[in-house]
Amino acid sequence: MRVKIGLMGLGTVGTGVFKIVNSRGRYIKESTGFYPEIKKVLVKDLHKKRKVDAAGLLTNDPREILEDEEIKVVIEAIGGISPAYEYVKKALLSGKHVITANKELIAKYGEELGSIAAEKGVYLRCEASVGGAIPILHQIDRLKITDEMDFIGGIVNGTTNYILTKMGEGKSYKEALNEAQELGYAEANPDYDVKGFDATFKLGILVKRVFGVSVPVEIIPRKGIEEIKEEDVERAKEWGYEFKLFAWAKKFKNYISAGVEPTLIPENSLFSKVKGVNNAIILRGSSFGEYVFIGRGAGELPTGDAIVADLIDILINYKLGSKSEVTGVNFREESFTDTFYIRLKLKKDNVYGLKEVLKLIKRNWVSIEKSSFGGNSFTAIVKVNGTVEGLKEQLEKVAVLEAVFKVLPEENFKERSEFENLVEVM
């Protein structure tokens, strides 16, 4: 039996889906009993040169998909909010299953669209919205049945990880960004990735899935990688660290904290080994301990593969959802670490300026793990006894604070031999 599919978008993600569905159709039928057939592909420009041969399938009229009763599954690969939101909502209201890789859409409207899907008795699947080829959402659904999870974190944006990898190899930020754009990992306007928006939307989805609570993405603290200077990368490397854009969420007794920010990762950590466009996500539970998932987080085929995995789930009528309701939550801005990297300019351009800083640090019961002083610049890794906000307030009295980044404690997230449980998806 054939199942007709409407594909919306034929960019990087849509092209990956098109290739996989058309090359693996026979194998999908053997596994599910259904042969997937893409009937229509929605594009803006009917005459644009494509990487795949979709002759006879292209349309620029969404009604040819949304109002076609033969089409049972809609795959949204447009991105952004409008018109993707309107198309997805109409598809669900029309009784069509929907698969999307649109993390912004799911982060902002996932609850509403999920309610419509439940009411209409259809599926809304979004595995590809987080982690590229890593089947993280499926794993969360399984693990939360038998365990209580209290932490999720990791590298969830392949573009920034590629840029930071290249900066660690000696390239400037601009050189690394240009290379990422040439390879198709970064858009012409890279703000969505490099300013942390993409990672924040993904984190919002993960928080809902892991903890069963809704945290508006607008209140999650976010810092991008454009704040990292080459001197920070060099100093971190000298001290045995690498920069990663780290997304994390931690559940405490009565509240949740989360954030997306550049973080120094010890070179002996598993996360420091995650290079290029790869992603890595860690889950912590009270029973299973720690699971780490690693896989490609960008590119047409990794993301396309995750979308087709959702399609297969729909075709075999498999559903494993959380029974917990998505609710509001008490959210607080806190830190998962007491260790920080600081870089500042002394107001007094001599050793007396340094003495003022050191005296202030000692007075605040802050221990210095690493430090470097030259000219009127002081850089250090410090362990804070209290809040970093209090330390920043004090330091700004005697210096110009130019950079503050979290440091992943060395005792956490060690090499894979330290993990009792480890799952890799390559």
From TrEMBL:
Keywords: Amino-acid biosynthesis, Methionine biosynthesis, NADP, Oxidoreductase, Sodium, Threonine biosynthesis
Binding site for L-homoserine: E187
EC number: 1.1.1.3
Keyword Oxidoreductase set for record: yes
Residues that hold NADP(+) according to the record: M8, G9, L10, G11, T12, V13, G14, T15
Gene3D superfamilies in the cross-refs: 3.30.70.3100, Dihydrodipicolinate Reductase, domain 2, NAD(P)-binding Rossmann-like Domain
Domain Homoserine dehydrogenase catalytic positions: 135-312
PROSITE patterns xref list: HOMOSER_DHGENASE
Coiled coil: none
Domain Aspartate/homoserine dehydrogenase NAD-binding as annotated: residue spans: 9-125
Residue positions of the active site: K202
Binding site for NADPH: K103
InterPro entries: Asp/hSer_DH_NAD-bd, HDH, HDH_cat, HDH_CS, NAD(P)-bd_dom_sf
Family under the similarity heading: Belongs to the homoserine dehydrogenase family.
Name of this protein: Homoserine dehydrogenase
Highest classification ranks of the organism: Bacteria, Bacillati, Bacillota, Clostridia, Thermoanaerobacterales
